[in-house]
Amino acid sequence: METPDGKCGFSPASFEMLRENFNDEVETDRLREAVGKDINEVSSNWADFKSLTDLDELGAEYTCCRDIWKNGRCVWHARENGKDRMFLHRARQPPKDTKVRAPQHRFERLDGVYLKGADLRGIHLSNCTLTGAWLQDADLSDSDLHGADLSNTLWGGVSARNANLGNASLTNIRAGSDENDFSDAYLVGADFSDSRFPHSNFSGATLTGAKMQNANISDCDFSEASVGGANLVCSLMNSSDLTDADFPNSDLTEASLEGCNLTRADFRDACLKDSKLYKATLAGMNINRSTELGNKCYYETTQNDTTADDTPPLEKAVWIYHAYRELTRENGFPSEARHFYIREKDVLRQRTWQRTLLYQGCHSYVPECIQRIGSRVASIPSKILRGLYGFSRRIINLPLYKSLSYEISRRSTRYGESPWRVVTISILFIIVSAILYPLSGIQRSQGTSTITYSSDMPITQVMVESLYFSSVTFTTLSYGNFQPVGWGRGLAMIESFTGALLMALLVFVLARRATW
């Protein structure tokens, strides 16, 4: 397209626009992606670049026909820092064949505009296309950018305080390390997908229905922000401040929130499945029964995950389940709290089994009590002490002991949460003992005949009598109308001791469930 004399002639596909900033990492990557070659291999001649590039895909059909302002470009595209908003306001192009004044016009093409340090306070650019624009250190406070296309723009130190960016497209933006200010901004339905806005300020912003899939918004301030219904799938929000933020109906599946401050944040009806919340502050966080925390956390299902702090995934899982347990208990959901308590204990059991499998002979853990006793008993000869110490190192394996204790607790009481397992074990023990007693024999206290399987009594009557004796022995009632014979006495002693232990355990489990 030929440009009339005295006009800007800027095109988004202009090689000069890309070449002048080839030292910029973002622009270099953009050029390489467009051309498919290294920048040093591309001729500086525009004709050569044109032959190598699909201009239609780069938007070459658009050419700026605004009047030249400085350096051969219009006021929008001239490489001039700190532009005044009045110049920009007057330079708006009215649509063809209309009588609408330029300052009121919408839907304008402003691709590749240069607005570094520009004063854009209160400017109206709604539904405009600003792809590839330079916005570093620009002031967008109180501006209207509703529905604008800001994809692939360059950000850094931008102030968008109280700006209207509703339904705006901010995709594929790589903001610099300077803080961007979105405080109190209207960002309803804005699309931040695949963008990077670390260290930004979103305090008090309205992000209802915003899309932030795969966005990097780590170390940001979201305090008192409203993020209801937002899509934050796979977003990175590590170390961000989300105090008093509202996340109702938001989707944070696989979002990274490690180290975030979620104090008094509202996550009712939100989805936090597989989200990373290690070391996040959950005090006062509001949830309801519709809040999806998932049956298992991310760190338990992805044990091969590598982290910067080298913390084992199972250790992170223990921390998460403990935090979830306290969170659900604080919000009045005892059944969910019991679930996360069981998950916490189950992960602890897995951790101890892992440590047990790593145990190698003399490198086992030595109980601290043995070391303390050994250091204080000076009267024992040193050879005997060393012998006892070496024996303890080979025999006593603390991780194995812990693993077995966790395993027994899991099988018998489900870590103290299942009274039915205690009842089932008790019934099975009574039945097994009832089967064993006739092998040795039980005797009535009023007679001399011994009840065994070989006696003249029917087998059903033998089992009924034996089951009765086993029951009263287990419950330690001992009416005295039966007594065991032979080795059955030892079995009766074991059964009475086990019965007392299991009944005490049942009382403990019932009392524990009542405290949730």
Describe this structure in words.
There is one protein chain. Helix 11 packs antiparallel against helix 13 (488-514). Among the domains are: 1-65, no CATH class; 360-413, no CATH class; 419-514, Helix Hairpins. It has helices spanning 15-19, 25-35, 46-52, 85-90, 298-301, 313-330, 334-357, 368-376, 382-395, 398-413, 419-440, 459-474, 488-514, and strands at residues 442-444, 450-451, 482-484. Strands 2-1-3 form a three-stranded antiparallel β-sheet. The chain contains 13 helices and three strands; from the N terminus they run αααααααααααββαβα. The protein is rod-shaped. Strand 1 (442-444) and strand 2 (450-451) form a beta hairpin. It has 516 residues and is an all-alpha fold.
In short:
The protein is mainly α and 516 residues long. Among the domains are: 1-65, no CATH class; 360-413, no CATH class; 419-514, Helix Hairpins. It has helices at 15-19, 25-35, 46-52, 85-90, 298-301, 313-330, 334-357, 368-376, 382-395, 398-413, 419-440, 459-474, 488-514, and strands spanning 442-444, 450-451, 482-484.
